[in-house]
Amino acid sequence: MTDQDPSTDLTDLAPAPDPLSAEDAKLVTLARATRARTGAAEGAAVRDSDGRTYAAATVDLPSLQVSALGVCVAMAVASGSAGLEAAVVLGAAGGVAVADLAVVRDFGGTGVPVHAGDARGTLGGTATS
Question: What angle do CA 113, 21, 49 make, to 5 degrees?
Fold first, then answer.
C-alpha cells in the first residue's frame, strides 16, 4: 500500500485526437469557462448518452471535497442520465486522476474518452475508461 493520495495519482494519457470533434471541443470550452469563472483548481465537463452536457468545478470545502469530474458525473446521475459519451478535465495537474477515471468507468462503462489538459484548455492527452 502506498501513502500517496489516490486523488493525485494520474493515469497514463494517449495523444488527444487532433482535431477534436466539435462536440468534444464544446466540452473543453465549458470546462475552461467553469474553472475560470469559479477560480477552482479544476474545471470539467461531460456529455451524457443523450447528448446533454454538464460542467462543474472542484468543490473544496472544509466538510466536502469533490473533484470537478466527480461533480459532473453526480449531476448526470441526478438528472437521470443513462451513461456518458465523453469527458474533459482541465487543471494544473494536466491529467486525469485515477479516482476520477474510476468514477467515469463506474457510470459510463469502458471506452469513454476523458480528455485532459491544463487550465488554459490546451489538451495534453486522453485517457479511456
Answer: 55
pLDDT tens-place string over residues 78-100: 999 999 999 999 998 888 999 99
Find out whether the peptide bond into 19 is cis, omega within 30 degrees of 0. Answer: yes
Give domain 22-123's CATH architecture.
Answer: 3-Layer(aba) Sandwich (3.40)
Rounded Cα–Cα distance for residues 25 and 84 (Å) = 16
Write down the pTM of the prediction.
0.90
Q: Residue 89 class from Cβ within 10 Å (0-12 exposed, 13-18 middle, 19+ buried)?
A: buried
pLDDT in tens, 103-124: 999 999 999 999 999 999 999 9
Matching residue, cell 469557462: 33
